[in-house]
Amino acid sequence: MSRILVLGTGNTHKAQEIAPLLDGLGVSMRAAGEYGPFDPDETGSTLEENAIIKARAALSLSNEWSIADDTGLEVDALDGRPGIYAARYAGPGCSFDDNIRKLLGELQGVPDEKRTARFVCVIAFCRPGREPMTFRAGCAGHILRERRGGQGFGYDPVFLVDGLGKSFAELTLDEKNGVSHRSRAVRLLRAELENLRLQDEAWKRSE
User: Fold this and answer.
1) What are the tens digits of pLDDT across the range 44-100?
2) What was the pLDDT predicted at 197?
């Protein structure tokens, strides 16, 4: 029997990225939607606040250990926009393509050397009766002038990863999980979970 870990997201792409990074840890990942309707209002003003809102909502539904992430895209030439509004940059009900079109339109005429940007991911971890914990990590890059690659989701086709010469959308899942902001944040979470496993006798007996 493994420790249940509930993921507070409606984005299946995120689940596909996170699950392999927790392999071998003795956790069974489940979606918050398995326990009931999951659509919390992300009313926070920071990535940390929004991640905690989603993790707490997942905990409330399941009463199991829960995690959730919130990710922002900070573009220097746009004074840090879209920031925490990356997923809904083009407005309510917008698609990934809508967001990319708006971003590229705002960067029209900006030279390559000034198209610096970074993805930032915060993962919140909530347990019954405990204060939330958060883990933050980033990945630096540049915004391309046009889409490249067919993998990934969101802004991946226009985010050129520094040092690789490829967009996130040109990387395999394994390659992306080696460098991405989300994978780095999950590794910080994993270290905490490994520490808790050492302290949890019931968890250890289940192995």
Assistant:
1) 999 999 999 999 999 999 999 999 999 999 999 999 999 999 999 999 999 999 999
2) 85
pTM of the model: 0.90
Per the structure, how many domains does the chain have?
Answer: 1
- Both tokens of 63, joined, read 């009463």
C-beta atoms surrounding 49 within 10 Å: 16
Structural domain boundaries, residue 74: 3-205
- CA-CA-CA-CA dihedral for 33, 35, 38, 42, to nearest 10: -110
Q: 109 in helix, strand or coil?
A: coil
Tell me the pLDDT of the chain averaged across its residues: 92
**Cα 108 to Cα 10: distance, rounded to the nearest angstrom:** 32
Is residue 70 flagged as an active site residue? Answer: yes
Which 8-state DSSP code applies to residue 8?
A: -
Question: Which residues make beta-bridge pairs with 167?
Answer: 160
Find the catalytic residue in 70, 76, 97, 174: 70
Max intra-chain CA distance, the chain: 60
State whether residue 107 is helix, strand or coil. Answer: coil
Please give the radius of gyration of the chain, using alpha carbons only, rounded to the nearest integer: 18
Q: Which residues does the chain have with pLDDT short of 70?
A: 1, 201-207
Q: How far apart are CA 121 and CA 70, in angstroms?
A: 6
Angle between helices 12-21 and 181-199 (to 10 degrees): 50
CA 76 to chain centre: 20
CATH code, domain carrying 142: 3.90.950.10
